[in-house]
Design goal:
This protein is an alpha/beta fold. The protein contains 13 helices and twelve strands. The protein starts with a strand and ends with a helix. 49% of the residues are buried. The structure holds pyridoxal-5'-phosphate. Pyridoxal-5'-phosphate binds next to α3.
């Protein structure tokens, strides 16, 4: 059987066995509704409380500041919809995920003023420009922690600081960052943060929104009294427990993990160079370990991705969440990559389960595909 080389960890990650094990009791035996008062609901209720405490501790928050959601998209939508309801102007970046950009389009249609900050050729937002664009006495500044296509990390603490000086709320979409770098929301001055478990070896279909205590923000999903009355819907206890386990596990080995994945990434680049492959490496030096965006001049990224697939290797072209769309990636456009080069782009995203053998296979496969001129 062909070996699978999974190198699309920015799209989703493999569930950690430890997270999987932790979920099982709540799928099979401890299935009570955590909101019920009887004793059979005590165990899921306790598990929910424990998961909230674990997640809060992992990001330097208080347990009551964590609100469980169904995914990163829901957390992002909650934030932008709150700004719409509060009639706040929004300043965001041109390289946000569509989970932010699409609701921002809605905000514009609803009459909110939305400014999309440009980024440098490395994909970094300017703190000075953010500051200049927060013009009224209140508003929402929403800038992602790390980009999904090129991995670039933004100056989040500085952005939060300038937002507060203007009386604005600061949100960050940390879906690509949480579980991959250390984040302390209180120390960094973050008011709201979106996260998604399946990006850090947790299960799919669960995420959370951190909201700083005291922040007045409208609820999003209305119904029951779950999540302090701010996010209705019976809690997905098993997935929430799996998310907490995965986050704690990743953060316990974060420095080692970053070092290992950076090592794999360096080997990938070294080997491409040694084989004389011509490419442009997009993004910044300061990026999420393992997120490698490569443009091959004169080639078609989609064709490369499909040929790699035939060899059992998973990578993506542009943003994996949007792989059905054929438009040029808005992120590559924003960093000034021309359309022809952008079309020749693939994203290799390495994770904690990748090995040096995987890297060797990826490099040799790319080399042989390019030699066939796809
Ligand atoms: N934000 C970013 C930066 C992402 O990369 C993604 C998914 O790729 C999302 C939001 C959406 O997360 P989810 O898949 O959990 O809805």
């Amino acid at each position: 059987m062909k070996k699978l080389v999974y190198a699309d960890n920015a799209a989703t990650t493999r569930l950690s066995p430890k997270a999987y094990e932790s979920m099982l009791p709540y799928l099979l035996n401890e299935y009570g509704n955590a909101s019920q008062p009887y004793s059979f609901a005590r165990s899921p209720k306790r598990a929910l409380k424990q998961a909230r405490e674990t997640i809060a501790e992992c990001i330097g928050a208080l347990p009551e500041e964590i609100f469980f959601t169904s995914c990163g998209t829901e957390s992002d939508n909650w934030v932008i919809n709150g700004a719409i309801k509060n009639e706040l102007p929004i300043v965001t970046s041109s390289i946000e995920h569509h989970a932010i950009l699409r609701p921002c389009e809605q905000a514009e249609m609803d009459g909110c003023n939305v400014v999309y900050l440009p980024v440098s050729k490395d994909g970094v937002v300017s703190v000075i420009e953010a500051n200049q664009n927060m013009k009224s006495s209140s508003g929402l500044l929403s800038v992602m922690f790390a980009n999904n296509e090129i991995g670039t990390i933004q100056p989040v603490a500085e952005l939060a600081e300038v937002a507060h000086k203007k009386g604005w709320v600061f949100h960050t979409d940390a879906v690509q960052a949480i579980g991959h770098i250390s984040i302390d929301v209180h120390r960094m001055g973050i008011d709201m943060l979106s996260a998604s478990a399946h990006k850090f070896n947790g299960p799919k279909g669960v995420g959370f929104l951190y909201m700083k205590k005291g922040l007045v923000w409208p609820s999003f999903i209305k119904g029951g009294r779950q999540e302090y009355g701010f996010r209705a819907g019976t809690e997905n206890v098993a997935s929430i427990v799996g998310m907490a386990t995965a986050l704690e596990e990743n953060l316990a080995q974060i420095h080692l993990s970053i070092e290992r994945i950076c090592g794999l990434e360096n080997k990938l680049i070294e080997k491409l160079n040694a084989l004389g492959v011509a490419y442009v490496h997009n993004g910044s030096e300061n990026h999420i370990a393992g997120n490698v965006s490569l443009s091959f001049p004169g080639f078609n990224g989609e064709a490369i991705m499909h040929r790699l697939d035939l060899k059992g290797i998973c990578v993506s072209t542009g943003s994996a969440c949007d792989s059905k769309e054929t438009q040029i990636s808005h992120v590559l456009k924003s960093i000034g990559i021309d359309d022809v080069l952008a079309k020749g782009t693939i994203r290799v995203s390495l994770g904690k389960y990748n090995t040096i053998e995987d890297v060797n296979m990826i490099v040799h496969a790319i080399k042989s595909i390019l030699e066939c001129r796809v």
